[in-house]
Amino acid sequence: MKIAFIGLGNMGGPMALNLQKAGHALSAFDLSAEACRKFGADGLPIAASAAAAVEGADVVISMLPASAHVEGLYLGSDGLLGRIAPGALVIDSSTIAAATSRKVAEAGAAHGIAVIDAPVSGGTGGAIAGTLTFMVGGSEADLERARPVLEKMGSNIFHAGAAGAGQTAKICNNMLLGILMIGTSEAIALGVANGLDPKVLSEIMRRSSGGNWALEKYNPLPGVMDTAPASKGYAGGFGTDLMLKDLGLAQENAAAVRASTPLGGLARNLYAAHSLGGNGALDFSSVIKLVQARQG
Ligand code: NAD
Predict the structure, then answer these.
(1) Measured between alpha carbons, how far is residue 220 from residues 22, 163, 166, 204, 275 in Å?
(2) Scanning 8, 9, 77, 210, which has the fewest C-beta atoms within 10 Å of its C-beta?
């Protein structure tokens, strides 16, 4: 089976490497020459363009930042849907608007190409370890076609519903994650301002009723957890601007269905302020800087 992989960023690069390790023939591409150089050096075969990468591919996977990138890649007169062989399967793992996923799936069907949305959770650690959670929108049959490929990159695969449903599940999850990271940051900052040792406090809360994913795997304070982006200058990981995009998608969706999401709205505004402060490219856990008490 030949797999084309488009988008070799913090998530896509390690996901593509896992597919190659599992023995699949890959052809990869990213618009960033630096990303191509980095993952080419790790052994990924790099194509000259996205169109060249999908030539003869049975499965095409994309892992791009946002809706506009996915529309630009697949739709329009130059779009990949005109290049991919009919009968092939497209798996878009980017987190984008559910409406865009449905649009691409409909356009794919018109070309005889099955398209599923399969956004992920688990962070860069999960991408590297191959333990991501996939939330799939599309038909059962297309999910079963994708399953052997998804299993090489993740350990949990859920069928959320029809086209776009994977995206809806993903923004619900990320709205919760965005809120949790701010709450966790506030609690740690409050303890530290009172002289508590952040490692001790984090461990107390991790094992108490405040325990959550940020405390388990992604502590926002530098030095508490060696593997977390906080301890690596907030580099890599999940960018503040990507979290801001996801919280924006959640708010748009909430307005469309008239849902009440006050904490989601507040979280979006806090990440927006953090991004305006010049932190958009830093990992989203750097939001702790907004709530840290001034020392001295
Ligand atoms: P990233 O910015 O690190 O990588 C995206 C890559 O896509 C970049 O290398 C960029 O050059 C490339 N790209 C953009 N347009 C392209 C095009 N038309 N053709 C080829 N390459 C193109 O982002 P990421 O952190 O890898 O995230 C990717 C997606 O996964 C986003 O939708 C994000 O919300 C989602 N996500 C990220 C994480 C995380 O922890 N980083 C976790 C879950 C989901």
Answers:
(1) 33, 34, 27, 15, 16
(2) 77
Known catalytic residue: 170? yes
CATH code assigned at 193? 1.10.1040.10
| CA dist., res. 256 & res. 267, Å (int) | 19
Q: Is residue 39 lining ligand 1, measured as CB closer than 6 Å? A: no
Q: How far is residue 122's CA from residue 55's CA, in Å, rounded to a whole number?
A: 30
235 C-alpha to center of ligand 1: Å? 14
Question: What is the helix, strand, coil percentage profile of the chain, to 5?
Answer: 55, 15, 35
Regarding whether 145 and 269 lie in a shared domain, the answer is no
pTM metric for this prediction: 0.94
Q: What is the CATH number of the domain that holds 18?
A: 3.40.50.720
The domain in which residue 65 lies consists of 2-162
d(CA 154, CA 1): 19
Count of domains for the chain: 2
Per-residue pLDDT reduced to its tens digit, 227-242: 999 999 999 899 999 9
Looking at the structure, tell me whether residues 156 and 10 fall in a common domain: yes
Q: What is the pLDDT of residues 145-185, one digit of tens each?
A: 999 999 999 999 999 999 999 999 999 999 999 999 999 99
d(CA 268, CA 247) in angstroms, rounded, equals: 5
Pocket residue to mutate for ligand 1, from 8, 15, 30, most atoms within 8 A of Cβ: 30
Residue 63 CB less than 6 A away from ligand 1: yes
Residue nearest to atom 9 of ligand 1 (CA): 9
94 touches ligand 1 (CB under 6 Å): yes
Angle at 148 between CA 146 and CA 153, to 5 degrees: 90
Residue where a domain terminates, one of 162, 185, 205: 162
Domain final position from 128, 162, 196: 162
